[in-house]
Amino acid sequence: MEAGKEKPAYTKACGIIEMDDADFKRLGAWRNTNVRVTSEYGSVVVKAIQTTQGPHPGLAFIPMGPWANMVISPNTYSTGMPTFKGVPVKVEVAEDEPVLNSLELVRKACKGEI
Amino acid sequence: MAKIISDVVCPFCGTLCDDLEVKVSDDGKELLEVYNACVIGTEKFLHSQAEDRLTVPQMQDEEGNSKDVSVDDAVEYTAQMLCNAKKPLMYGWSSTNCEAQSVGHEIAELVGAVVDNTATVCHGTTLIALQDVGVPSCTLGEVKNRADRIVFWGCNPAHAHPRHMSRYSIFPRGFFTGKGHKARKMVVVDPRSTDTAKMADLHMQIEQGRDYELLSALRVAVRGNPLPETVAGIPRETIQEVAETLKSGRFVIIFFGMGVTQSLSKNHNIDMAISLTRDLNDYTKAAIMPMRGHYNVTGSGQVLGWQFGYPFCVDLSRGFARYNPGDSTSNDLLRRGEVDAIFVLGSDPGAHFPISSVKKIAKLPSVCVDPHITPTSAVCKLHMPVAFVGVEEGGCAYRMDNVPIETRKVIDAPEGVLSDEEFLKRVLTRVKEIKGVA
Ligand code: SF4
To answer: Domain spanning B124-290 has what CATH number?
Structure first.
């Protein structure tokens, strides 16, 4: 993301969750709706889009970036490496909630506003 | 008339392509076009030309409003912060040249800091595994000229290292690989059907996080021992086919990425992948290589290695170098609240660290040295904009196969904008004054 992380392109590229068609059905949502993704470690609103590199039912993908980092596991198990992958999450429709841009998201999260 | 500069090195990903051509205006001030680079590489060059680029240091007050400050103020704030802290964390170092890293380490030694690089959230687990079991590796030149069995495990070069396949691994015709991709077999292991996987001869769509099992199963299959019906969601026959494909090659190379280093088994996955490579050497020649992301994260490991003996998370707070992943690594230090100031250069922990760590950074005295506006600069007290290394500043960088390459300066930085190295040297001078060392 060399064009600038404050730009809408970054949100469009990383403020998303890629899901399978089958999972859209289970969720009862259309593609390109905003959803709230919640794990044991946190929660974030992102846009649900149809997976580009599927199929992988039951598996969703948020690209590495501040949105993913709201929900991934910070446990490093003494390796220094947080557990970025394989985090169980719940996805709910959140049509009325906006996807924040990266700077807002991080600032608000740090101030405890979200 | 514009001039063309050739043999330019791309300072974006660890592939470090060195065949770029850049068109610059006659006065050498403006970068007009970039040839041969992939989309992300081109974007990096062109972003340096952005009109809204920040050139003046920004200081944030309590409410988060920023104001312009002078470079002298920025140097003073940074030096004071580092000297006053008991145990500062100096993190990043992956998007800068080795020269700047070296100056940074000198500061770290004087102030008793912890130096950590982006390997900590990337290939740190690989480095741990290397120390556990060693590594049979090679250079990308060998891959190009010899490799005929290519494995991409948990990595997606089609997106992350776009020219890797065309320059080194799949398509080029090398000395012993004159038929190019026609004579190569490509195996991809990924839970998703990625764009890389779509090109593969064999794609093992593994169940997420089961890499350790599948790697072990491959070792069993390579030795011709019996396997259960499926392992990690992959049928026995496929595993055996992959094992035979690898054994029948003349040169096997396994590339691996975040898919294995960041999932739950972490370094143990890599242990197993290296052991598989070692086993394969009983039958043919095999090597393994991590797909390093930032263009000079490898260099940071190298410079730390030759100066202090360890490749990342080096704790200098006791006056000598200690290395203990899980203890001296950035995220562990932040989570436990063991550092009291943060200095970030050439990386974006605001975007790459778990939010719990970012919250800690936001509460501490902090400096972010970066040409871009990033989530990190958004939460750091001081943002020091600098020149783009590899575009406005040359210097040494290490490719993912540990080959050092001298990057080239193609244009001048905007007036008054320092390079990482210049800024660090000024901070070093000030730190020496404060500490009273000559
Ligand atoms: S593959 Fe990597 S090094 Fe090569 S041009 Fe693309 S971003 Fe630059």
So the answer is: 3.40.228.10
Q: Is 0.90 exceeded by the ipTM?
A: no
Return the residue matching tokens 């080959």: B403
Q: Domain limits at A24?
A: 8-111
Mean pLDDT of chain A: 87
Q: Encoding tokens for residue B159?
A: 């997106």
B251 alpha carbon to ligand 1 midpoint, in Å? 25
CATH placement of domain B58-122+295-435: 3.40.50.740
What is the pLDDT at residue A1?
47
Cα–Cα distances in Å, from B347 out to A23, A57, B119, B367, B387? 35, 34, 11, 12, 14
pLDDT, position A2: 54
| Model pTM score | 0.91
**Domain-located, residue A104:** yes
CA distance B380 to A101: 17
**Residue spans of chain B under pLDDT 50:** none
B132 Cα: distance to centroid of ligand 1 (angstroms): 31
pLDDT in tens, B283-300: 999 999 999 988 999 999
- List the single residue in B43, B208, B351 with the smallest CB-CB distance to A66: B351
The Cα-based distances of B415 to B54, B56, B130, B386, B412 in angstroms read 12, 10, 44, 11, 8
Which tokens is B27 given?
A: 């006065």
Q: Would you say residue A46 lies in a domain?
A: yes
Of A41, A79, A107, the CB nearest to B325: A79
